[in-house]
Design goal:
This protein has 570 residues and is mainly α. It contains 17 helices and two strands. A hairpin with a 2-residue loop joins strand 1 (518-520) and strand 2 (523-525). Helix 4 runs parallel beside helix 15 (432-474) and helix 9 packs antiparallel against helix 15 (432-474).
Length: 570
């Protein structure tokens, strides 16, 4: 196998061990293709476009989140309007409790809906942590592992670079001394002999190898260090940004616990209301403490789903960019803002991005290693020839003291051998089977799989929590017991005379009954009865005082004030 083949094998290696296609999760297409209200979805615009293009992209990212906030805000305003309209206008939708005269099927349907909504809030609160946090943690570990791997490679190459520079300087010093020796006639007693030709061939190959080493250290190695520094900095930036924007499992648990706790309290209230167990203190606690907190948490969920939509869309755009609609397309589009396609940095990064399928830009290492191999072989042969005849014999034959070049060639041989070993180590560090898996781990597995799936779960969970939380707020009448109401069909003295055996609303009462005057067998009085409003909320009735009128009264279930017929107390 030729040296070039060996070199190519070292850099490219077994392609089947690291190459692979990227199977994009469905969440990427869902978020990338979602409507942006006519704005672009190309992430690289943030780096390649002008100010107006960048604003257009950001407006597109904000569209979905803004739409979500607006829809839930309209829903909240509708609930507020229903609250203001009250029971008489919109019934239980105002938040007032049901009465025993509401259809049982309606009451049961509303309470079942409330219970199902509470279950969904609990379920997706758990999924928010179990699915969203798990995927985020996986992505964080992926970024951290890859960052450590890149840092390790960069550190090893930095040490290798320093060692190469040190040994190269030593080799250059030996080279200069060897050049001084070779400028004279190395074998004046036998000019044109094999000894002189061997010496000059040896010196020529050695000098070329050392010169290539000097060029490599001063230019090629520095360029390679620059590329690796850029890669390391990019990995650090991704890792830092992800750590700063990603909540820890403890933080996610702290976020979810309030949703679970407040929902459980409301479920307990629902059970008590369903059993018609009236606990005024607990209802006060729910009405004035738990429900306001729950409303705040649902508002936070709405804002959270808007933020999650923004991040998920940007992530999906990163994974669907450029001409190829892949992560590689996005990276190359961004690189074009910093480099031209003929720049060394662009060629190296693109080579690894495309999993070493393109032309290898690191072929300059091939020439360097070939020269080192030639120099090593020549030095070994020459040292072997001198040792076979001894230095003293060759010095006597040529008329020149060969102890000086021999003392130069021996350490130079050791340096060349060490340089060749370190060069092969360096190639192993930057080989495709080493670099490509790191890239795929960061972009394919971390950014475009674990992260986007985590963001998708978080977005879906928060939207579900917000929706069913709003349903619970809208149907809050479900957890209140039925409002109590006295009613009798007896039309005798002391009780309300109804027009028929069915319930009458306040609008069905006679004019004299509405006037507020009590008709009795002793005449008329202008005294209004102080009766509980059966459709008012429990706390409003709870605060009312009892009437000073000792007459027996009966209330219409609608809760409106009307005139009643009474018998005086005796």
């Amino acid at each position: 196998m030729s040296t070039t083949d060996e070199f190519s094998s070292q850099i490219v290696g077994d392609q089947s061990s690291y190459q692979g296609s990227f199977n994009a999760p469905g969440a990427i297409a869902n978020f990338h293709d979602i409507s942006r209200s006519g704005n672009t979805n190309e992430f690289s615009i943030l780096f390649t476009g002008d100010g107006e293009d960048q604003k257009s992209y950001l407006r597109g990212l904000l569209y979905l989140g803004t739409l979500m906030v607006c829809l839930f805000s309209v829903w909240a305003v509708v609930l507020l309007v229903l609250k203001c309209l009250g029971r008489r206008q919109v019934g239980f939708m105002s938040g007032a409790p049901f009465t025993q005269y509401d259809a049982p099927s309606l009451v049961k349907s509303v309470r079942y809906t409330f219970a199902a909504s509470a279950f969904m809030v609990l379920l997706f609160s758990i999924l928010l942590v179990s699915k969203g946090t798990t995927q985020l943690q996986t992505a964080a570990e992926t970024f951290d592992d890859s960052n450590q791997e890149v840092a390790s490679i960069s550190s090893s190459l930095a040490e290798l670079s320093k060692a190469l520079q040190t040994e190269a300087q030593a080799a250059i010093g030996l080279r200069d001394d060897l050049v001084s020796f070779l400028r004279q006639d190395v074998c004046p007693n036998q000019p044109g002999t094999n000894i002189e030709a061997t010496l000059r061939d040896l010196s020529r190959s050695t000098l070329v190898a050392v010169q290539d080493l000097e060029n490599f250290v001063q230019s090629d190695l520095q360029r390679l260090d620059t590329v690796l520094d850029d890669v390391q900095n990019a990995a650090k930036e991704i890792d830092t940004a992800f750590e700063e924007s990603t909540p820890t499992p403890f933080q996610m648990g702290s976020i979810v616990i309030p949703y679970v706790v407040t929902t459980v309290f409301m479920i307990v209230a629902l059970v008590l209301g369903w059993r018609e167990t009236r606990n005024d203190k607990y209802l006060c606690f729910i009405h004035w403490f738990v429900l306001p907190l729950f409303i705040i948490f649902i508002a936070a969920a709405v804002i959270g789903c808007a933020v999650a939509a923004f991040i998920a869309q940007a992530n999906a755009d990163v994974c669907s960019g450029g001409d190829t609609s892949t992560p590689e397309g996005t990276v190359e589009a961004i690189m074009e803002t910093e480099f031209t396609r003929t720049d060394f940095e662009f060629e190296v990064i693109s080579f690894y991005l495309n999993q070493c399928r393109e032309q290898n830009p690191l072929t300059f290492l091939d020439d360097y290693i070939q020269e080192l191999n030639v120099a090593k072989q020549s030095l070994s042969d020459f040292v072997a020839d001198i040792q076979s005849q001894t230095v003293a014999v060759i010095s006597a034959e040529c008329g020149v003291d060969f102890n000086e070049p021999f003392n130069l060639i021996q350490p130079l041989e050791a340096i060349v051998d060490s340089l060749l070993t370190k060069a092969n180590e360096g190639i192993g560090l930057i080989g495709c089977r080493k670099i490509v898996p790191i890239y795929r781990h960061v972009m394919h597995d971390g950014t475009c799989t674990s992260a986007i799936q985590a963001e998708s779960w978080i977005y879906s969970s928060l939207v579900t929590i917000a929706f069913f939380g709003m349903v619970m707020i809208m149907l809050r009448a479900a957890y209140q017991p039925l409002a109590e109401s006295n009613r009798s069909s007896d039309k005798g003295a002391g009780e309300l005379a109804y027009a028929d055996d069915k319930s009458l609303s306040g609008s069905q009462l006679s004019g004299s009954q509405r006037s507020g005057t009590h008709s009795s067998i002793f005449g008329s009085t202008n005294q209004k009865s102080s009766i509980p409003d059966e459709t008012a909320s429990w706390d409003e009735n709870f605060r009312k005082t009892q009437s000073t009128d000792t007459s027996f009264v009966s209330a219409d279930p609608t809760g409106q004030e009307f005139e009643i017929q009474t018998m005086p107390s005796r």
